[in-house]
Design a protein that fits this description.
heterodimer, A: alpha+beta, two-stranded antiparallel ribbon, 3 helices, B: alpha+beta, five-stranded antiparallel β-sheet, 10 strands, about 25% helix, about 35% strand
Chain lengths: ~80, ~160
């Protein structure tokens, strides 16, 4: 379980009042596993996380893909986007 | 402001490699040279399609005073480069593509997004431009925080 900095945006960052948190995340998991671990540690954003995607090193993690995290991984929680 | 020129994977050996692609997440509204396709156009390009996303003064009947765009800039530029590769794979390796998205505070009437696509022919230019805007709406890590005339504000989801 590496402890990593997780980047937060928009509604999720607003709820936590910070654009990043430290969290213990599973080293070998998938997007659902990452979101579940975060929800356990930050119950105040549990409802928002169910609508979020996970990005690692600037790429979305595909729904069924494995996620391998290490100390230098840049993990971000991506709420539904509204650019354009 | 930062930009990323010609993604290496877009260069095809012996072919007409696009030289002037650019993708940027800007601080503030889209202005200046980004508003025009400019040097994107090469001698083999007979068509340029451009799309402008502009801040609207209303949403579902509510008056909008302005908005703030937040972005994850590093990932957003990576996503734009990836979408450009996908557009080229679908609509032709000769396409040249420039995309810029605004961040920060914008007022109604200001330009939030611009897409320019140059191609040999109009069909590919229109189709690639349409593909890019639809994919940007789904995948670009940018978020709109909208401020209303009644004093309320909200993070938008989708659009």
């Amino acid at each position: 379980m590496p402890e990593l900095t997780v980047l937060l945006f928009a509604r999720v960052a607003e709820r936590i009042a910070s654009d990043r948190v430290r969290a213990d995340l599973p080293a070998d998991s998938d997007a659902a596993g990452v979101l579940a671990a975060l929800a356990r540690q930050l119950p105040q954003i549990r409802d928002l996380l169910s609508h979020c995607r996970v990005a690692v090193d600037h790429e979305f993690v595909a729904p069924m893909a494995r996620v391998h995290l290490h100390a230098g991984s840049e993990v971000a929680i991506i709420p539904p986007v509204s650019g354009g | 402001m930062s930009s990323l020129d010609a993604s290496p994977s877009a260069v095809t050996p012996g072919g007409a490699a696009p030289q002037r692609d650019a993708f940027a997440i800007l601080v503030g509204a889209v202005t200046g040279t980004w508003l025009s396709p400019g040097e994107l156009i090469g001698p083999a390009h007979g068509a340029v399609a451009s799309f402008f996303g502009v801040v609207r003064d209303h949403t579902r009947g509510r008056a909008v005073l302005g908005l703030d765009y937040q972005a994850y800039p590093v990932m957003a530029e990576a996503v734009l480069a990836q979408l450009a590769r996908a557009a080229r794979a679908e609509h032709g390796e000769d396409l040249r593509i420039r995309v810029a998205h605004a961040t920060g505070s914008l007022m109604p009437g200001e330009v939030a997004l611009v897409i320019h696509v140059a191609s040999a022919h109009r069909a590919a230019a229109f189709a690639a431009c349409r593909l890019l805007i639809e994919c940007i709406k789904q995948d670009l890590p940018v978020w709109k925080h909208q401020h209303y005339a009644d004093g309320s504000s909200e993070w938008m989801q989708g659009s």
